Amino acid sequence: MQNHNSNSWRKNKIASVLLLAFFMVSFIEIIAEFYEDRLLIWITKPLILPALLLYYLKRSKSISPFFILALFASWVANMLFIQSTFQFITLGVCFFLIYRILVIYIIVNKVKMPTSVPLVLGAIPFIFIYALVTVYTYNTLGDSVYLFLIQGVFTIFLGGFSLGNFIMVSNKTNSLLLVSTMCMTFNQFLFLLKFYYNDVNILQAFAMVLFVFGQFLLTKYMFHTEKTKQRYEIINNLKDTN
């Protein structure tokens, strides 16, 4: 028993160090984005998601291979976005679309689908924002607008799903999912707004703030769903015993 507690303490300590490393590296990267320090961006950006992944692996009691694949797809997308050329950005959007699909798959398999009314009501704000952004960026995106619209369908569904679940059950788990989804959605919009403003560094830095907190909150959401699943398993075992 003492050995088990010692191992658990050590594991939590390592996880805390990894989480601290995640936020420290993220903070340095955000500063680098603000000052447009390309070298520092190349040094720090590749370390952000691996640190979060290691934190997840240390803390998780039920590791999801799909979540690992999602983080990897997001990491590849981020590496491609550093290049800042249209071809690399388009390829990065493709990988981010894979990330979005994997996240939706994970969530749909973890949470009961909301009824049609909350789902539609939850999707309305995301539809409105996406339509507005599409109108303003249509000429700039060109043929890539179709890829943006495809990603928009998945984002609107995830937004409607998250907000719909929150409307039905306003608990901490659904709050984490909703705020994470909002962060990642507005991160995407800021990415497109960079084509219209001169102060790109400010937008990019703020987009990274949203990205970091969006990914962290999604990881916290994964932990909370694990706890919920464990409670259901304990209750079911008690019922079977009785």
What does this structure look like?
With 242 residues, the protein is mainly alpha-helical. Helix content is 88%, strand content 0%. It has eight helices and no strands. The protein has helices at 2-34, 38-59, 65-82, 86-110, 116-141, 145-168, 172-193, 200-241. α1 packs antiparallel against α8. The longest helix is centred in the last third of the chain and has 42 residues, at 200-241. Mean pLDDT is 83; it is low at 230-242.
What's the SSE pattern?
Answer: HHHHHHHH
Structural class of the secondary elements? mainly alpha
Terminus-to-terminus distance: 28 Å
Shape: globular
Strand count: 0
Mean pLDDT, as a whole number? Answer: 83
Radius of gyration: 19 Å
Low-confidence stretches: 230-242
DSSP summary: helix tally: 8
Please describe the biggest sheet, giving its number of strands, its sense, and whether it closes into a barrel.
none
Strand content: under 5%
Helix content: over 70%
